[in-house]
Amino acid sequence: MNERLRKLQPYPMEQLAVWKQELSQRGVAVFDFGTGDPREPTPAILRQAMVDGITQVSQYPPTGGTKALRAAAAAYMQRRFAVQVDAENEVLATLGSKECLFHLPMTFVQVPSDKDLVLYGEPAYPVYEIGALFAEAWTYAVPLSVKHGYAMDPDALPEAVLRRASVVFLNYPHNPTGFCLPDALFRRWVEVREEYGFVLVSDECYVDLHYEGPRPRSLLEFGKQGCLAVHSLSKRSGMTGYRSGFVAGDAQLIATFRRFRASMGTAPQEFVQAAATLAWTEEAHVAQRVAVFAEKRRVLLELCAARGLRVHGSQAGLYLWIEVPVGTDGLAYAQRCREVGIVVAPGSFFGDGQEQFIRLALVPTVEQCRSAAAIWPQ
Question: Which residues contact 361 (CB under 8 A, 6 or more apart)?
Answer without folding.
Answer: 32, 33, 34, 35, 36, 37, 38, 318, 319, 345
